[in-house]
Amino acid sequence: MKRRNLLRALAIGAPLATAGAVGAGIAAADTANFKIMVTEQVQNKVMVFDKNAAFSDANRYKSWSPGTGGWSNLSDCRIRDTAQFGAIGLAAASGGKVGIWNITDEKDQELNDVLWSATPGGNPHALERIPNIGAFVSASSDGFLTVYGPTKISDPSTLAKVQTVSLAGAHGVIWDPNNSLLWAAGDKIVQAYTVSGTYRNVRLAKSSKKVALSGLGHDLQADFSNSSLLQVSDSYGVYSINKSTLAKTTLHTTTRIKAYVKMKTGEYFYMRADNTGSRTWGSPTIVFSQSADRTRSGAEFYKARYYTTAYN
After folding, report:
1. Which residues form the signal peptide (predicted)?
2. Are 99 and 120 spatial neighbours (Cβ–Cβ below 8 Å)?
3. What is the architecture of the domain spanning 3-17+30-306?
């Protein structure tokens, strides 16, 4: 291990454990030079940058600015593919809103690009799309998941709340296309849910698959290097979960990791809350294991994502 990577591993608390193109700039395959999207809470924007360039305004690839109010303190972002609109952006905000926007050719997008939004209640921390049936599921940290079903899959304006499912500390949700399960991270647990029904009859039901965590779950993401695994962070570290065997492997033992992504190349990047300022849960820096870290002066990043529509 090179000295720089050794120092990086020590900084995060422990070394690594041994154990579709739908628009310009959106990745269908993993490459060494990729784009990432971040939620930045001071300007309250989702921003997309090339990871090999400074995270400056001049270098932004795209941005989306929904304004404040219910959209304040953006807490999640990701992109998914649809037949009707191509790539759409998904967002959740601690101010109370969740929603999706149409990713157009515009460099800087705003609230008028929103296709649908809702106010699930609590403190929304994540939003995920279930493909083929066009349903969406949000996670609110006050303790529940909210399911939204459409009357017309191609028309998100027809989405309405159809179910609320209790999950203490709900923070993360991700669709698992290999097993047709929705996984959610909450307080000391990662829980899988089966999905039944279509349109307004779509429903979640607890699966027997669950994995205990030591603390409050934060980020829950695919492992882009291995489709059989999930990556989850909690208050005390980062773990890999085998979706079939439910085996949990500790990758890092550093606290306050709010976003963590592992790429096919083996590179990983993360955001660790710096515990300072008015947003103690954020940081102006995204750390990369094999590339230069990126710091944006005055920023408060919360989530960081690989800029791809792929689920894994």
Report:
1. 1-24
2. no
3. 7 Propeller (2.130)
Q: Is 166 exposed, middle or buried (0-12, 13-18, 19+ CB in 10 A)?
A: exposed
pTM of the model: 0.91
| Phi, psi (rounded to 5 degrees) for 57 | -60, -40
User: What order of strands is seen across the sheet that includes strand 248-252?
Assistant: 172-176, 181-196, 203-222, 229-234, 237-242, 248-252
C-alpha 245/C-alpha 254 separation (Å) is 25
Q: What pLDDT digit, counting tens, does each position of 202-252 carry? A: 999 999 999 999 999 999 999 999 999 999 999 999 999 999 999 999 999
- Bridge pairing between strands 62-65 and 108-110: parallel
Cβ count near 245 (within 10 Å): 8
Q: Are 257 and 301 in contact (CB under 8 A)?
A: no
Cα separation values, 240 from 147, 191, 231, 255, Å? 26, 14, 5, 16
Q: How many CB atoms lie within 10 A of CB 107?
A: 10
**Residues 216/190, Cβ–Cβ less than 8 Å:** no
